[in-house]
Amino acid sequence: MTVELESLKGTYDYYAEDWATRKHLIEVVGEVAESFGFREIDPPSIERQGLWTEKEEDSVTDEMYAFEDKGGKDITLVPEQTPTRARMIQRRKDLKTPVKWYSTSKRWRYEDVTKGRDREFMQGDFDIFGLESVEADAEIIAAAGTIFKRLDLDDRVSLRINDRELLESILESHGIEKTEEAMKVVDDKEKMGEEEFREDLRERGLSGEAAEQVDELTDISGPILENIESLRETAPEEVQERIDRMESLGEALERHGVADMCRFDLSIVRGLAYYTGLVFEAFDSEGELRALFGGGRYDDLVSEFGEQEVPAVGFAFGYSPTIELLKKEGRYPLKGTETDAYVLSVSESVRGKALGYAAELRNEGLCVETDLGDRSFGQQLGYADSINAEKVLIVGENDLENDEVTVKDMETGDERKIPQDEVLESLS
Ligand code: HAM
């Protein structure tokens, strides 16, 4: 049988050298989450299709890997985790709010494959349930910003924030009737030229004048607090409260130390239908990459699945676009293979002794490899180099006769003899 060796389009065989960087990112995301008190959960990877199809359809509904299982149930690989989390919250009435959850796992969407957009991909989701407060919004955005600070990528990240309701009422107050249609087009504004954008709006039934107005209004963008006054002038009276909330968000983001990364941007809409107000998305400030992460407030989704009404806000961090950003920065791989020590046996007769050292060092928690294939001295040293061993413990008969072993520092090349009973101390 001949088997196609390539993995399916948009799925990747992450070999150890690629996985090391991803694993490091997963650890950073986890550390940031834990530092804010988010607790890790692990929901299923397959769900009933209805979680996505029975609510208002949106950009992911058409992209699901959906099929009928052997029991005749319509199921899907999860394209995103938010409806699953809403279901989990609805199921458990006993949870004390706020509930703060995070997790990193795989998702599947049948998308056009581009740089940073795959069909099988990882997201790191963070959500806060049970709070309507602007402080919860700020904490979610701060957690997202902190991930990029930890990765030393904050200079490259432009976090764009909007409020869908605000946009809708600004459009309405300017006499634009087909706001739903307009907002669908605005969602893609980033990817279009001016003429294409206006044409698309006209095709959806907006007049030429309305299309021009939508284009101009959605150009409003800049540091949040600097734009509040001009927003107040543009927005109708009934949404002044939402502008006050945006102002409070701007202030809270300053206190969290992430305001420099954030901008207000009236063109951010987001493709998912469940957002009820705040929406945000982050982009590479110097490039073409698609969003690095995205999220928002979804106060009605939980109640679509039952009686409990629970407001929520969250985001999902995108691993693939962040890896693309690291590549553009010349910082990929961030991590390679790491090995604390290689225990080299010079001859067959010392193999048992070498294994004993390997076992002791492993018990100390070190990552240790040793010869498994009767290889020569040179081959073993070459292998130790290829796995980036920090130190090589050379176990040879002559040394052992003097109650010694040799430790080679692989970075400097220095070798020194140490008494056998100092091995643990010297390598730990
Ligand atoms: P989303 O905007 O669809 O939102 O995805 C969030 C992030 O996941 C994107 O900004 C991107 O970085 C990454 N992502 C999305 N699709 C792909 C793909 N095909 N390949 C690689 N990365 C991708 C959501 O999924 C919401 N559930 C986020 C959320 C959580 N909202 C509230 N809580």
Describe the overall structure.
With 428 residues, the chain is an alpha+beta fold. The chain folds into 2 domains: 16-328, 2-Layer Sandwich (BirA Bifunctional Protein, domain 2), CATH 3.30.930.10; 339-427, Rossmann fold (3-Layer(aba) Sandwich). 38% of the residues lie in helices and 21% in strands. The chain has helices spanning 16-35, 50-53, 82-91, 134-150, 164-173, 179-186, 194-203, 208-217, 224-234, 240-256, 301-304, 319-328, 351-363, 377-386, 397-401, 423-427; strands spanning 39-40, 46-48, 66-68, 74-77, 99-108, 120-129, 157-163, 221-222, 262-265, 278-284, 293-297, 312-318, 339-345, 368-370, 389-395, 404-409, 415-419. A 9-stranded mixed sheet has the order 1-5-6-12-11-10-7-9-8. Helix 13 (351-363) links the parallel strand 13 and strand 14. Helix 4 packs parallel to helix 10 and helix 9 runs antiparallel to helix 10. The longest helix is centred in the N-terminal third of the chain and has 20 residues, at 16-35. It is elongated and about 95 Å long. It starts with 15 loop residues before the first helix and ends with a helix. The mean pLDDT is 95. Histidyl-adenosine monophosphate binds at residues 80, 82, 109, 111, 116-118, 121, 123, 125, 127, 272, 291-296, 314-316, 318, 320-321.
